[in-house]
Write a structure and sequence with these properties.
This protein has three domains: 179 residues, no CATH class; 158 residues, no CATH class; 84 residues, no CATH class. 40% of the residues lie in helices and 13% in strands. By secondary structure, the protein is an alpha+beta fold. The longest helix has 30 residues. Strands 1, 3, 7, 8, 9, 10 and 11 form a seven-stranded antiparallel beta sheet that branches. Strands 2-4 form a two-stranded antiparallel ribbon. A two-stranded antiparallel ribbon has the order 5-6.
């Protein structure tokens, strides 16, 4: 491992595509002093740095936007996208600048990106900045998702400043250093499709295949294979979201990663009381991105991406259309398969029976009707006693209609009898997939308030450590696994979050 990022960084391979795909731009300096809020030591190791690399003053300057990386050209990507269902031609990185590309000892490539680094040609009417509130939210949630085993971008650090930014109110500015194998999203393809620049799509697709899906290059139709793989990864990611009650909030096509990563954390939330129609974004007045709509929105987004590849799929437009439709039809099958597999495991089932779907759906209906906390219920269900139903009061007491639960519990007991596992074995397996800790909005709000008012980052650090191991018991943190306080219902998040 090395401590110097200059010695392991190179120009991002994305730059080889040419300036039709990006704009070269320098980070805008903060006017006031910067301070380190938090540093992700595990992410540093992933990049090939030592854990305490934040002590390096040169790295701190880079994470503060005060210095670019030696021999590397910073840039902002051009892309478009469907925002709340409507196509917007030119979006792009309005407040993000990619600094460099890093290859670690495992030959993995990671892009290093500053988010909140100032104006770019794609900022439109924005200021190109990020507030401390939004950077803390993304920093903590990206690590929470990583801890849950859900594909995601990650973050290396948060740096704050005394500069003031106007959102709904005046807030302190901050910078997030984000990392991902690539930040290419569906919108990178859409912009060229809608401008009829099909040769640009081919160049971009070839780049993605070469650098991120090289195993597909030997396929008889690599572009079809690319579409199929993106569909599969997207379906799996959204199935994982649904399984933990995660609501993204802004599933625009420009927020959909070409690698199937969770990207662009804005008004996200982890659902507390089970409500299929849960809307986490108060800007989403019509519920387009409600929790139960996410799988269907995934298909809409995939269709937008598939459309961009039609010029590449076959020389005959009709054949290309048929190929795209055939691949898109796999999305629902893939999603149902992944979701079913995960939910089977959440119930402790290792085999499939005809009654399993009804058993799960009936449980979810009960949870909805009785306003049961999603995460706590599934964690308590891990300790279900299949030999003595009267010993399950901790689960039973979560329901208002307890007779209804008793009937369900008897069916669940009968179903578990068909499994070749002891209660102890099943409980062990279930606790590896049903998290005890999730990032509830009230937790983030406490951390944000302490950071904004007192420059106290201890709660950020505590949550960061907690969320890296969400399946572990962590007795010292038991309070974080409890029901949220009443005041948490008043927290509201929007697209500016």
């Amino acid at each position: 491992m090395t401590k110097s990022i200059d010695h392991i960084s190179n120009n991002a391979t994305f730059l080889t595509l040419g300036e039709s795909y990006y704009s070269i731009v320098q980070p805008t300096l903060f006017e006031s002093e910067t301070r380190l809020v938090h540093f992700n030591k595990n992410a540093a190791v992933t990049l090939g740095l030592v854990k305490d690399a934040y002590h390096d003053p040169e790295l701190f300057k880079i994470m503060s936007g005060l210095k670019t990386i030696e021999n590397c050209i910073p840039f902002a990507m051009l892309y478009s996208g469907h925002q709340f269902g409507h196509y917007v031609d030119e979006l792009g990185d309005g407040r993000a600048i990619t600094l460099a590309e890093i290859k670690n000892a495992n030959d993995e490539t990671w892009e290093l990106q500053l988010k909140g680094s100032g104006l770019t040609p794609y900022s439109r009417e924005g200021d190109g900045r990020a507030v401390l509130r939004s950077t803390i939210r993304e920093y903590l949630c990206s690590e929470a998702m990583h801890g849950l085993g859900i594909p995601t971008t990650r973050a290396l650090s948060i740096v704050s400043s005394n500069d003031k930014i106007i959102r709904e109110k005046i807030e302190p500015a901050a910078l997030l250093t984000r990392i991902a194998p690539t930040h290419i999203r569906f919108g990178n393809f859409e912009v060229f499709y809608h401008r009829n620049q099909y040769s640009h799509i081919r160049v971009l697709a070839d780049h993605v295949l070469k650098h991120h899906y090289p195993e597909l290059l030997s396929d008889t139709n690599p572009y079809r294979a690319l579409l199929g793989e993106v569909i599969k990864r997207t379906a799996k990611m959204i199935a994982q979201w649904q399984s933990v009650g995660f609501s993204h909030g802004v599933m625009n096509t420009d927020n959909m990663s070409i690698l199937g990563l969770t990207i662009d954390y804005g008004p996200y939330d982890f659902m507390e009381t089970y409500d299929p129609g849960f809307i986490c974004n108060h800007s989403d007045m019509h519920g387009r991105y409600a929790f139960d709509q996410q799988p269907d929105i995934g298909l809409f987004n995939i269709s937008c991406f598939a459309q961009t590849l039609i010029p590449l799929l076959d020389e005959n437009p009709d054949n290309a259309q048929m190929i795209a439709v055939r691949e898109m039809k796999k999305y629902k099958h893939d999603y149902v398969r992944y979701y079913t597999e995960i939910m089977q495991k959440k119930l402790g089932l290792t085999t499939e029976c005809d009654e399993d779907k009804l058993l799960l759906n009936d449980l979810l209906h009960m949870m909805k009707d009785d306003q049961v906390d999603y995460t706590i219920l599934f964690r308590r269900l891990c300790d279900f006693n299949s030999t003595s139903l009267t010993d399950n009061n901790k689960i039973r007491d979560m329901f208002l209609q307890r007779d209804r639960f008793d009937k369900w519990a008897a069916r669940y007991q009968q179903r578990l009898s068909k499994e070749n596992l002891s209660d102890a074995e099943r409980q062990f397996n279930m606790k590896k997939i049903n998290p005890k800790y999730i990032l509830r909005n009230y937790m983030t709000e406490i951390a944000i308030q302490q950071a904004q008012v007192n420059h106290d980052y201890s709660e950020v650090n505590k949550l960061f450590k907690l969320l890296q191991n969400p399946f572990d018991e962590q007795p010292e943190n038991e309070s974080y696994a409890d029901f949220p306080p009443d005041w948490a219902q008043d927290i509201s998040v929007s697209c500016s979050s």
